[in-house]
Amino acid sequence: MPDENNDLHNVKHEKQYSIFQIAMNLTVACFISGAIIAGTYFITAPIAVEKAAAMKTDAMKSLVVDAQKFNPVKGKKEWFSAEKNGKIIAYVVPAESKGYGGAIKMLVSVTPEGKIIEFTILDSKETPGLGDNASKDPFRNQFKGKVTKDLEVVKDKTKVNNIQAMTGATISSKAVTKGIKEAVQQVTQFVGGK
Amino acid sequence: MGHYLTLLASAVVVNNFVLTRFLGLCIFFGVSKSLNASIGMGMAVTSVMTLSSMLAWVVYHFVLAPFHLTFLTTAVFVLLIASFVQLLEMIIKKHAPTLYNMWGIYLLLIATNCVVLGVPLINVESNLSFLESTVSAVGAGLGFALAIILMASLREKLRLADVPKPLEGLGIAFILAGMLALAFLGFSGMIPV
Amino acid sequence: MRELWNIFKKGIIAENPIFVLALSLCPALAVTSSALNSLTMGLAVMFVITVNNTVVSITRKVVNPKVRVPVYITSVATIVTVVQLVLQAYVPLLYKALGIYLALIVVFAIILARAEVYASKNKVVPSFFDGLGMGCGFALALLSIGIIRELLGSGAIFGIQVLGSWYNPALIMILPPGAFILIGYMVAGFKMWTQHMEKVKLERGEI
After folding, report:
1. Which of A12, A29, A36 sits opposite C82 (nearest CB)?
2. Angstroms from A152 CA to nearest CA on chain B
């Protein structure tokens, strides 16, 4: 069965197209495309923003389980204070340090007295199976309740107060510890200065 | 100065765009059959990447971002780069025929290619300055050239080897690329970013 | 009906975009370190290629042949941006996991190739099935690579631990070299299988 479209195509190819026709064709396509994208954006953008905010609150809630409310801290970018019964029970601060494969971005929750509650790794490019395990136990659990002076990476298993390095991932271990230590120091400074 | 050298080295070896970030594979496997073609392609890709990266940066920072149109980034970049490459090809063909014969013929192959689109997108994502983006793009191109030239040299040697039938062609090429990638893996962690 | 099934089927095996045509390989290695990412990417591409084929076919008589490539690119870019926006709004974690590779769908050779080779010259319904078949083949290829890589590289599938702690994961599988080598073998395996099927059909007298 001869494809009638092919005949149409052949006939069209003999036609001479003016630059205007060609340009119009493309312009119309662009306009339609722009309209569709803009339309979708207007529908989905508010949802995306809401989702992002909800995810952030969830992340912070997992760092300070008892918190009832989170308030942004004035004068400090991306800092949040966790409130319970009107009292500030923790600060949630961002931390960043140079890891093995790139920057490691973390979120750390610290009590006003300078004790670590929890931390989570938001973004990292560490080696899967080695440095990547920083976000998992047992490495992660070590930080709970420690203060600044404990935050040193050691390989000696008897020094339980310090941070045991992950096997084969010393650089990642040191980077994560350094980032968290800086965060704790900043909180102590902030609280002390108030 | 050191910062830019680090950026360059990072793009060329540590985060090689072909062997680590998996971009530009179609041309990588297609063209690496001949060493000469690979050298030409490497030059074409480096030139296109650098120039289109600069153009894309300008468009993003002076048009898209200020007007909150960043959701159009993908579409705009693609059309921008495709048209730009087309234009470049016409200009080179007309005004620099020797250059054209060296690598101009590959230009249309890379007009819509993931590595040429990927570099400006990564630059935008990493929030690099104009100079940083350009250096990164040059590095990406050089890294691509390095990878494809290495691959081509290896494949030429492969013609004398006894490859099992099913692995012939694409199969053995992939495995070879895997070994190259393994070698490049040794560079990771070299530069604390 | 049989026609449509054949059109659909060829995208999955005979002309599988990844294992046979070797087009759009970049994502095949980049996102397949986990089965979930592979599935998401596969479905996204399936959606884009099917919709694009349909759109190109519907507008094939209106599009000026001299600008058809830019128009196709515009069309694909629009569809991909829409997918990006929707994913960003409803499953932001998956969106982040796919990263720029989602945006790169715009330049997939397979999508432009199908539009040019098939959709621009055929009616809407066959074009739809052609796109669907190719997309399906692509998604299945991606999914199989993803499952193998995740299983061997971390002992899990879709995040569910399958192999117990006795299994020391072959980390290389989730790193670039493992991906390359695995696909090399899979391409060879695919070739062997299709050749075997051809032989069987020949013996049965079907060809």
Report:
1. A36
2. 20
Do the chains contact at A22 and C171, CB–CB below 8 Å?
no
Tokens of C50: 């099917």
C-alpha distance from A85 to closest chain C C-alpha (Å)? 32
Picking from C81, C72, C141, C126, the residue whose alpha carbon sits closest to that of residue C105 is C81
The model's pLDDT over C4-46, given as tens digits with 9 standing for 90+, comes to 777 777 777 777 777 777 777 777 778 888 888 889 888 999 9
Q: How many domains does chain C have?
A: 1
* Predicted complex: ipTM over 0.90: no
Nearest chain A Cα distance for residue C61, angstroms? 8
For residue range A173-194, what is the model confidence (pLDDT) as tens digits? Answer: 888 888 888 888 888 888 877 5
Task: Write down the pLDDT at residue C50.
Answer: 92
Q: pLDDT, tens digit, for every residue of B39-70?
A: 888 888 898 889 988 998 988 888 887 777 77
Give ∠ CA B126-B138-C102 in degrees, rounded to 5: 45
Examine residue C27 and say whether the peptide bond preceding it is cis (omega within 30 degrees of 0): no
Q: Taking CB atoms and an 8 Å cutoff, what residues of chain B touch C195?
A: 166
Put simply, the answer to whether C154 touches A128 (Cβ < 8 Å) is yes
Beta bridge partners of A154: A164
What are the pLDDT digits (tens) for A29-63?
888 888 888 888 888 888 888 888 888 888 888 88
Instruction: Answer whether residue A6 shows pLDDT above 80.
Output: no
Query: Would you call A22 exposed, middle or buried from its count of C-beta atoms within 10 A (0-12, 13-18, 19+)?
Result: middle
Write out the residue range of the structural domain in which residue C63 sits: 2-204
Option in A33, A103, A171 nearest B75 (CB): A33
The DSSP secondary-structure symbol of B126 reads T
Task: Tell the residue number behind the tokens 């499952």, with chain if given.
Answer: C147
CA distance B143 to B118: 14
Chain A, window 117-136: residues with a beta carbon less than 8 angstroms from a chain B beta carbon: 127
Phi, psi angles (nearest 5°) of residue A110: -130, 140
Task: Give the pLDDT confidence score for residue A194 in this predicted structure.
Answer: 58
**C-alpha to C-alpha distance for C131 and C79, rounded to whole angstroms:** 14
CB atoms within 10 A of CB C144: 17
Interval C122-173: pLDDT, tens: 888 888 888 888 888 888 888 888 888 888 887 778 877 777 767 777 777 8
Q: How many CB atoms lie within 10 A of CB A5?
A: 15
> Taking the domains of chain B in order of start, what are their residue ranges?
2-17+24-185
CB C7 within 8 A of CB C15: no
- Number of neighbours of residue C15 by Cβ within 10 angstroms: 18
All structural domains of chain A with their residue ranges? 4-53, 64-193
